[in-house]
Amino acid sequence: MTTSVVIGVDLGGTNTKLGVIDSRGKILIRRQFSTQTYTTGEALADALCRALYSLKNECERTNYHCKAIGLGVAGRLSADGVRFSPNVPQLNHFPLLTYLKEILRLSIAMDNDANCFGLGENWLGAGKDIRNWLGMTLGTGIGGCLILNNRLWHGDNLGMVGEIGHMVVYPHGAQCACGSIGCLEAVASGGGLVRAYQTGICQVKATPKDIYLAARSGDAFACRLFEEMGVALGIAISNAFNLLGIHTAVIGGGVSAAWELFISPLKKTLERVNHMLTGTKPDIRIAQLGADAALYGAAQLAWEISEK
Question: Cα–Cα distance between 151 and 135 in angstroms, integer?
Fold first, then answer.
């Protein structure tokens, strides 16, 4: 008996993850490759095509019928591909969606990776019982999404929405990868943590995990960076809550693993700066799907187009 499946793809700044996923959200097959290995859009698209062909062939051998592909990509998107991606710059102005459709000859849907995070958590994770919420992904950069009335909100279809990572929280702060000064992403992302740590510790090479372990070991400078991260997140979330009239945020992404180091300053800052939520308790949740949230959301995209 043939089982209908879709392929979800989470194309991030560090790695590209692929999964064959059924209608109940079970990941049946996984694959992954390094995004950073490929320095041009065409080389990265070719690598993705090869990985998708391999998965499609494996599906055929194991009695899975692949109905569609869903693709989550970090950056601002256009109708045919990627307009601008600070964390996957090789895809800037590359017509990725058109390229994949022409080669693979399958139904393919594409959205921002943070939107896919929202779709995944809304389907199977921390957002499934919430009507309105702000989603945030803390990774190489910071992504954002909005679930309003249980639907992903796309605004005016400009290719970007919910980009809380590029909300300015410190007008005289550090420069962000997007080119602006003082964005949340420059302070509270994995990339921001690394740049601040290397600047303060004499150019010592480090990863976000190294900084997390240093903080857990009592490194005062690393602890201060996570404190500053929590403060910046609290300011940004407060601004978003005031603008939208909501009170729930779901935070995921790899850097959210340092939850215990930044959640207290985040909540204290939110309480200190927000005077509009009187009588309503802010609800700050950690994502439930871990590193697979955007993969599940990409699969949800694929299921939606397969049913049209």
Answer: 12
The single residue listed with the structure tokens 């049946």 is 28
Task: Please name the residue that has the structure tokens 């909540």.
Answer: 267
* Boundaries of domain holding 44: 3-117+292-306
pLDDT digits (tens, 9 = 90+) for 52-110: 999 999 999 999 999 999 999 988 899 999 998 877 999 999 999 999 999 998 999 99
Same domain, 31 and 97: yes
Q: Name the β-bridge partners of 148.
A: 151
Q: Which two tokens stand for residue 148?
A: 């309003």
Name the DSSP class of 174.
Answer: P
Structure token pair of residue 145: 């999404």
In DSSP notation, 88-154 reads SGGGTTB-HHHHHHHHH-S-EEEEEHHHHHHHHHHHHSTTTT-SSEEEEEESSSEEEEEEETTEE--
* pTM for the predicted model, two decimal places: 0.91
Tally of domains in the chain: 2
* 8 Å CB contact between 265 and 150: no
Tokens for 53, please give them. 């062909």
Sheet hosting strand 133-138, strand order edge to edge: 151-152, 142-148, 133-138, 248-252, 283-286
Residue 125 within any structural domain of the chain: no
Q: Are residues 107 and 152 in the same domain?
A: no
Claim to verify: residue 26 and residue 81 sit in the same structural domain: yes
pLDDT per position as a tens digit, 9-67: 999 888 999 999 999 999 999 999 999 999 999 999 999 999 999 999 999 999 999 99
Taking the mean position of all CA atoms in its chain, how far away is CA 305? Answer: 21
